Amino acid sequence: xALPHTPSSEVVRIAPLGEALTGAVxxxxxxxxxLEVIRLVVLAGKTLPQHQVPGEITLLCIxxxxxxxxxxxxxxxxxxxxxxxxxxxPHALTGRSNASLLLTISLCTPRG
Length: 112
Prior knowledge:
112 residues, Jelly Rolls, four-stranded antiparallel beta sheet, 0% helix, Cupin_2, Cupin, RmlC-like_jellyroll, RmlC_Cupin_sf
């Protein structure tokens, strides 16, 4: 069963989850022709294993702290931090504290 996504022009509140964060799960917010938006939940000590996607991505840390590993770099993301990764960049996330992030993925075919 497919999850419903936000229809065009509908307002969605992307606020910190606070105490509800520990029971929250990843949530698909939008999947359009060229864009996907997901709220990621990364709990303290948990890791989203290394992976990559063809399109460019952005991560906005809404709350908490996590570690972003990319080839040759390990960066700490804290509340309010934003990062962009080029398409095809291998990356992994590990929760340093319970964290939620807004992930955007470009679904456009990369030009070669």
